[in-house]
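Table S2 (continued). Query chain:
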Amino acid sequence: MDMTTPLLWALTGERGAGKTTFCRALAERARAAGWDVAGLLSPGVFENGVKTGVLAQALRTGETHPLARAHTAPGLASAAREEGFSLAFGNWLFDPSGFAWGNQVLATCLPCDLLIVDELGPLELVRGEGWTSALTVLRQPRYRVGLVVVRPELVEVARRSLPIVRVMAFEARASSAGIGAASLPDGCEVPPL
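Corresponding output:
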């Protein structure tokens, strides 16, 4: 495994486009090819079709930890704070223990073949909070291919902070079966496995 010059790609796209679903599929494809896959996913938690939370999921073990809860409805903020979700950002309350757990997962994921960090946002890239160990880990030449999910408005900040070699813009597309599907734009290939 040559890790002297890891290939780090950024995946960006609007909220709800399917970036996490793509990351999960890429991780499964890499595992099937015999790659050691590590890092974190941030799958949403939905109730009645509404996103009400976010989990942190370790790619090596599948273990999950609550990361964030929406606090837009009356009463949700106080209930979430009672459960430890105390870091407010936008319409979300984050659980600092979820970030601590995720930082530990990231700190122990190297070396690996495929490193995925879903996602780095304003907490990490602007405020220096959240999954801060991701920035250190992604700068280390101890993985073969890396994929970091970044919001469109933070791509340039991420490029200044990380050795990103290519940015892939992700768009949701409808499948022929009428079920929502997500894919990369035509001509954009994932790194070969």
